[in-house]
Amino acid sequence: MTDSGGDLRDELARLGVDVVAAGLVVGSGGNLSVRAPGADTCLVTSSGAWLDRLRHSDFVRVRIGDGAPVDPDSGVAASSEVALHLHTYRTRPDVNAVVHLHPQSVLLLDALGERIRLTTTDHVYYVREVTRVGFHLPGSDDLARAAAAAVADGANCVVLAHHGCSVLGGTVDMAHKRVRNLEEAARLTYRALALGRADLPECPPDFAARLHLDRDISI
Ligand SMILES: [Zn+2]
Questions:
Q1: Centroid of ligand 1 to alpha carbon of 163 (angstroms)
Q2: Do the Cβ atoms of 114 and 143 come closer than 8 Å?
Q3: Most buried residue among 19, 75, 101, 121 by CB atoms closer than 10 A?
Q4: How much distance in Å is there from the Cα of 69 to the middle of ligand 1?
């Protein structure tokens, strides 16, 4: 990653094309952000931007401390959900990418009170833990604070009830893989429930335990 912003915007643009194609968001829903490690600013997608059509001009650089745009004369406004990104960065110095999408299966299971089962090694490796927050108005400071509090202990996937999810990563690539696996785990859980198999076995706990012991494990 570079601090110039160019490479980071391209990384998010590629993520945007993929997550729209994968059905994790429709229309101009969702928003994305990234910061260079240690930077006091981040790049956030602009209000109304379609995630599969992102150009460099669809990103706004804002200060993480107070949310002010670095270039207030650009004529481009940051996403209405910018507070969600800022509160998360303030809470988690290790996070450099925040992906907010509206994944259908994740939201369906949450609305039904069903836990997302982590069935495969990929699910456990990338998702690890899913937290949730109750309903708050989209774009509100309440939502942003609740979502940040839900990941303060190190969780990287939080479901925002009746709205979407916020998925975090130390890199854009990790956040990308994580959100794809979150929705895949939800889809697999949904299929098991549709078959009447609420007893869907989860990935053996030995694997998760090994991840805690050996963070460099690869799959
Ligand atoms: Zn949203």
A1: 6
A2: no
A3: 101
A4: 21
Each residue's pLDDT, cut to its tens digit, for the chain (219 residues) gives 444 555 899 999 999 999 999 999 998 899 999 999 999 999 999 999 999 999 999 999 999 999 999 999 989 999 999 999 999 999 999 999 999 999 999 999 999 999 999 999 999 999 999 999 999 999 999 999 999 999 999 999 999 999 999 999 999 999 999 999 999 999 999 999 999 999 999 999 898 888 876 655 666
Ligand 1 center from residue 102 Cα (angstroms): 6
- Assigned CATH class of 6-213: alpha beta
Q: How many CB atoms lie within 10 A of CB 198?
A: 11
| Cα 160 to middle of ligand 1, angstroms | 9
Separation of CA 30 and ligand 1 centre (Å):
5
Gap from CA of 39 to ligand 1 centroid (Å): 25
* Residues contacting residue 64 through CB under 8 Å, at least 6 positions apart: 35, 39, 40, 41, 42, 86, 89, 90
Measure the CA–CA gap between 49 and 139, rounded to whole angstroms. 15
Ligand 1 centre distance from Cα of residue 46 (Å)? 13
pTM value > 0.90:
yes
